[in-house]
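Translate sequence into structure tokens.
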Amino acid sequence: MSPWLIVMLVICVILIIGIIVLYILGKKSQKKKAEQDAQIAAAAQTMSMLIIDKKRMRLRDAGLPAAVVEQTPKLLRRSKVPVVKAKVGPKIMTLLCDAEVFESIPVKKEVKAVVSGLYITGVRGLRGTVAAAPKKKGFLAKLKAKAEKAESAKAELSKGKTEKAASKKK
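Result follows.
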């Protein structure tokens, strides 16, 4: 057997083993997530609150209780999480939020939220529906829009010049 064939077989075997390991780990994490979701749903309660502010910030900078920060894994302490400051009754609380729900939370409005401990899992408007905030355009989307606008203006300008030239020929 040639050496390159042996190398290719070894690489294929390593890739197959890697795929199998990732599949097994994915199944385990799916089961773990399902159990956590069931626990969160069991402890959920609905409460009305006035949303003061929302932003993504590091867990240690969010102003959460020390016990919450200590229980999180060290790698997650540095990552940015969606944090909501809300007035619940007479108290102002700092709450964590689900990533999908975070985008639909309106600022400076009163909402009914499904809360499980310090975690917001759902939001609906107190008076009507919750209007989703308009999504901000990214840098590349802004550049693309600017380029399209310039291109259309250039096309209009050239169209106007050809019309003037055609009218002068008559």
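Note: The CA atoms of residues 25 and 83 lie 29 Å apart.
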